[in-house]
Specification:
alpha+beta, 3 domains, 18 strands
């Protein structure tokens, strides 16, 4: 009986030890996680969008996570994310929206963002599809050429031949001598600020380096990550929120396109 009792006690201790280890391990894993919470609004930045599904992708691991649909206040939550930098997209009842912005998640912290959904007009939607298709194939999409460059103001006038260029884009300017990358941040068209310029029109951009007439201009996938959706209804812009991790990009490889 004593041996049996000792056996039962030993078995009980072993089970208890396993449970303690499992709980400790689960707790440790949870401590390494971060969370995302935010709101989805219409293009006005104040009207809540109900039923939107936020899709996020970890740029390091490639893991994709979908949130539950946003509520009547536009509120959404994405718990239990690994620390890192994330890309996002939004699914809604009217269509899908791509974002060119990244946000960071840190362990034991909650990142908070607000998103505004900006639908394209039919021309811009078609142009965006052209750009995204080529980006998925080549990592960057040819959109036009520099038709004039003013060295005194470092302003390049770009004629958009295919697709579109947007103020949030990262571009690659390449010519016989020119070869550099740049985040736009600002876009002008015919003397006025513009969110995007589509094919058949000219865009003016201030360049970080000297370029020349005839240089090719490409729109690059930020961080090498193509947009979520091939046929987007519009753009999802992060209009507010803390970003705990900064996006740092290494110089992209030289374009495979050759200049004849």
């Amino acid at each position: 009986m004593r041996r049996l009792a000792k056996g039962v006690v030993s078995w009980g201790l072993a089970v208890a030890l396993i449970l303690v280890i499992s709980i400790t391990s689960a707790f440790s894993q949870d401590l390494r996680k971060g969370h995302l919470i935010g709101y989805v609004f219409d293009r006005d930045g104040s009207t809540p969008v109900q039923g939107a599904v936020i899709v996020v992708k970890n740029l390091t691991t490639g893991a994709v996570t979908e949130a539950a649909a946003s509520d009547d206040l536009g509120l959404f939550k994405v718990p239990g994310l690994d620390p890192g930098l994330y890309a996002l997209g939004v699914k809604s009842a009217t269509g899908n929206f791509n974002s060119q912005e990244f946000f960071g998640v840190a362990a034991q912290q909650t990142s908070k963002i607000s998103i505004a959904l900006n639908p394209y007009d039919p021309v811009a939607a078609s142009a965006a599809e052209e750009v995204i298709k080529e980006q998925r194939e080549k990592g960057e999409a040819y959109i036009g050429k520099v038709v004039n460059y003013d060295p005194s103001t470092k302003t390049a006038t770009v004629f958009v031949e295919i697709g579109l260029v947007q103020k949030e884009d990262r571009i690659h300017v390449k010519g016989q001598v020119t070869d550099f990358y740049q985040d736009l941040g600002k876009l002008m068209a015919y003397g006025a600020k513009a969110d995007r310029v589509t094919s058949g029109y000219t865009a003016s951009v201030t360049t970080s380096k000297t370029c020349a007439e005839g240089d090719f201009v490409y729109v690059v996938c930020r961080g090498g990550i193509p947009p979520f959706f091939l046929v987007p209804l519009g753009a999802a812009a992060i209009v507010a929120g803390a970003v705990p991790l900064a996006a740092e990009f290494k110089e992209e490889p030289v374009s495979k396109h050759t200049i004849k």
